[in-house]
Amino acid sequence: MKPAAFDYVTPRTVAEAVAALADTDRKAQVLAGGQSLLIEMHYRRARPDLVVDINRVADLDALRVGDGALRVGALVRHRVFESPRAAPGPLGRLLSLAAHHIAHPPIRTLGTMVGSLAWAHPASEWCTVAVALGADIEVRGGDGDRSLGAHDYFRGPHLTTREPGQLITGVRLPLLEQNTGVGFLEHRRTHASFAQIAVVATLTVHDGVITGARIGLANAADRPVRAVAAETSLIGAEFDQVESEGQRADAGPFHRAAGLAAERDASPRAQPYADVDYQRHVVAVLVRRTLHQAAADLRADAGRGDSGDAG
Question: Where does the FAD-binding PCMH-type domain lie (predicted)?
Fold first, then answer.
């Protein structure tokens, strides 16, 4: 099929883009990478009256580090994060792990992190990273600039707190401490499928004790979620007591956290190829494995001395 008829504008500034979106009587969509929007338009599941193409807007492709955060502009492509040096230290390594799970190289060349946040798919890698890290999503509308916390930005599949007429200009991801290990894993039915379940995890250790943990779950509910119960169970655990992958998987802090993530933090929905019990099982397995990955990353980083570069 072909898209339904629509008007098309190419603003050169953020102000022009916001002005184009200001007519709330029209159904408008923003085009950056278009890797999700154009498919929906071709199948006529999306029928915007107006497409606002922001690819010519200056400065939206900037990637900057400052004030303890990495600011990602609305036109920064997925492929930028394939290199762990796109951001300093552990954050760069985490973004690189996540980026390599996103679709295929041609899509990563065109698609954007901010576009993923705008589309708000429950299986999105970037949405889950944003929730896990407590990112701030920056929007501009007719009433000026606002910052939306990722923890309450997502309301359901493709539903967010962003209002009509608001343009997402960027997202701020907090930098991670150097003594932090990171992990990202996902399970798919096929190589070309969306993640059936994906997990992002960070572990921060001081003096041999886990002092911080962040765990995000993709497609384990109708939106990306933090596994708060699982995170809390890890605080205060002795890092040296963490069992090694390949040894007993039914004991230790990672096993306990995995069970809590599956039973308390996840709210999976039945799918054609996976009932709820199976999905909870996948959550538990992936959380445990991702925590092991983060622990291995932390141990490796002790001898790596990698501070990373940004830009």
Answer: 1-178
Which of the four pLDDT bands, split at 50, 70 and 90, describes residue 198? Answer: very high
- DSSP assignments along 135-202, one per residue: -EEEEEETTEEEEEEHHHHEEETTEESPPTT-EEEEEEEE---TTEEEEEEEE-SSTTSPPSEEEEEE
DSSP state string for 118-131: HHT-TT-HHHHHHH
Name the segment(s) of the chain with CATH classification 3.30.465.10: 63-174
- Section 82-96 average pLDDT: 97
Mean pLDDT of 260-280: 94
- Say how far apart CA 121 and CA 128 lie, in whole Å: 10
Select the CATH number that applies to the domain covering 63-174 from these four: 1.10.1790.10, 3.90.1150.10, 3.30.465.10, 3.10.129.10: 3.30.465.10
Beta strand 28-31 pairing with 159-160: unpaired
At residue 251 the predicted structure's pLDDT band, cuts being 50, 70 and 90, is confident
Which CATH architecture describes the domain 180-301? 2-Layer Sandwich (3.30)
Mean pLDDT of 266-284: 94
Architecture of domain 7-53: 2-Layer Sandwich (3.30)
Confidence of residue 307 (pLDDT cuts 50, 70, 90): very low
CA dist 69 and 115 (Å) reads: 19
